Amino acid sequence: MSANSAMFHKTRYRPLEMEDDAEHHLALHDITDKLRHKVHDIKETVLLQKELGFTTAFAYVVGSIIGAGIFISPKGVLENVGSTGLSLIVWVLCGVVALFIGFLYAELAATIPKSGSGYTYMNEIYGPFVAFVNLWIQAILMSPCSTAILSQTGATYILQLFSSSCAPDVWTERLLATVLVIAVFYFNYVGVKSGAAFQVLTTAAKVLALIVIITAGSFYIFKGGAKNITMEGSVLHPSSIALAFYSGMFAYSGCEVVTVAVEEVKNASKVVTTAIVSGTLVCLIIYLLTNVAYYSVITKQEILAVPAVAVVFGIKTLGPMHWVIALFVFVSVIGSMNSSVMQISRYFYVAAREGHLPRFLSLVSVHNMTPQPAIMLGGMISCMFIYMSGIYQLMAYLQFVYWLNTLVVVAGLLWWRFKYPQKPRPIKFPVVFHVVLLLISVFLVLMPFLQEPWICLKGLILMATSIPFYLLFVVDWTRKRKFLKIVDRVHDFMNVNMQLLFTSVYAAETKEHIELGLVGEESVGVSLLAEEHEDE
Asked: 244, CA 20 to 30 Å: which among 30, 191, 266, 316?
């Protein structure tokens, strides 16, 4: 028992001054009975609610895929394949691969209906060590780093609206980026509905922005702009194709975002699958038409020379109104940040529930039904990355790790198909899709090793940094515990005080949760203080 809980314990059981007074005994019994029922009600009702329907799930998928990249620099594919015509083919093929990734995660989400996406699936298939490495890469490094980069991009473009003549000051940009991170995390902190509504709004805005670009570009197609789309200069070397796929798939990443919160989706197996497939197809069509619009207005040489393609497109097509492109980029960035926030917080929440992170990160607010400690920690880590140098290089190293992660997940699914052929699978796609994705993943993991082995090695080193933390804080060694009693004491202190600070408890243990194994007997969905009251 912690110091705080002992204090409560002594206060509650101190002798009554009038012990023989029946009226005082009756009053005390009445208060205790009311408190017991109140605690019981909290236990039955506090859990992450199923607030996400098809519209919000679709918005998360589309909003997560469409980030700032399609507005700023779609030249990554073009500079590797050499021609506009071949680049369009690569964009389509990348969309098909993204669809295969969507099939993979949709089937896993239906087979293992737990939140946590790849972390949860690896935990079920490979065990805690592989899952913890995935958690380290996704929740500690990649998602917060991506959020920091997005916030800085948004800050840059919003500052350009007010001062287009000079580059913004670095510290002004960083401070504004911090404000953006705090604002987006706050939307998710106050409630799932507010975060979902914000996602729907920003997704609609960024799709509208791309429709404006596509519409403007269509006029130039009829004026002869289609002549810019040729196969001249195409490069078909395998390494160049692989690098082009890396650039294209980076723009398509995020189609599995909704699987990180599958427990919060209504009719999850059907809605998650429909949202992933339809959202990815919509993005494929939008990306293809947007690139056609770019190529119809801007020449190949201009695209390769400028850092922000959409800005040049706006100047050529919108004239004095070209500033709206910067506004569109800002809105797109905010929407992508909102998806990242949801991913980070749910990763922390699920990992804490599984015992891989401090338990207080699985606390749920009794007022807003959101994992507020997990959301706050995600915001703090994202803000920290804003003030670090070299985060763009870090993301480059993690791209290799992303495909290694995909390879491990699809191999795990195929192994489960072979090992447990009779396991119920509400959603089951043809195995050929998963085999093709496996082969593509192997190709995209091996080719960079041949071209840029040092970058891949750095990615593996980043993965390896998770091992000491796993051995120190996750593996339960009896001998180790003797030297880390201070860690346990701090953990107990944080568990109690985080509940008091956030007015939160551990999520309710329902019959569905018990059947899925989401929580153990020690996590009955009630605070330590409430557990003590029940002991009465």
From this structure: 316
The answer to whether 348 and 139 have CB atoms below 8 angstroms apart is: yes
Consecutive H or E run containing 478:
helix 478-483
Work out whether strand 363-365 and strand 504-506 pair parallel, antiparallel, or are unpaired. Answer: antiparallel
Helix %, strand %, coil % of the chain (to 5): 80, 0, 20
Q: Give me the residues paired with residue 195 across strands.
A: none
Tokens of 380: 């703090």
The pair of three-digit structure tokens given for residue 454, joined into one six-digit string: 């040092």
> Can you say how many angstroms the Cα of residue 297 is from the centroid of all Cα atoms in its chain?
34
> Distance between CA atoms of 260 and 117, rounded to whole angstroms?
4
The neighbour count for residue 421, using CB atoms within 10 Å, is 8
User: CA-CA distance, 414 to 397, in Å (whole number)?
Assistant: 27
Digit-by-digit pLDDT tens for the chain (536 residues) are: 333 333 333 333 333 344 444 554 555 455 445 444 444 444 445 667 777 889 999 999 999 999 877 876 677 888 888 889 999 999 999 999 999 999 999 999 999 989 999 999 999 999 999 999 999 999 998 889 888 888 888 888 888 777 655 666 788 889 999 999 999 999 888 888 888 888 999 999 989 989 988 998 888 887 776 788 888 888 888 888 888 888 888 889 888 999 998 988 888 889 999 999 999 999 999 999 999 999 998 888 888 887 678 878 888 888 888 788 888 888 888 888 999 888 999 999 999 988 899 888 888 888 878 888 999 999 999 999 998 877 777 777 778 888 899 999 999 999 999 888 888 888 889 999 999 999 999 988 888 888 788 888 888 998 999 999 898 778 776 555 565 677 777 777 888 888 888 877 776 544 444 444 444 433 333 333 334 444 44
User: How far is the C-alpha of 223 from the C-alpha of 220, rounded, in Å?
Assistant: 5
Give me Rg for the CA atoms of the chain.
Answer: 26
**Residue pair 459/129 in contact by the 8 Å Cβ criterion:** no
Is residue 117 within 8 A of residue 132, CB to CB? The reply is: no
Q: Partners of 365 in the beta sheet?
A: 504
Question: CB atoms < 10 A from the CB of 452, how many?
Answer: 15
Distance CA 369, CA 244 (A): 43
Q: Which residues pair with 504 in a beta bridge?
A: 365
Confidence (pTM): 0.82
Contacts of 512 (CB under 8 A, 6+ apart): none
Local structure of 99: helix, strand or coil: helix
Alpha carbon 453 to chain centroid, angstroms: 28
One-letter identity of residue 489: R
Cα separation values, 273 from 54, 95, 304, Å: 10, 16, 37
Buried b (16+ CB within 10 A) or exposed e, 32-64: eeeeeeebeebbeebbbbebbebebbbbbbbbb
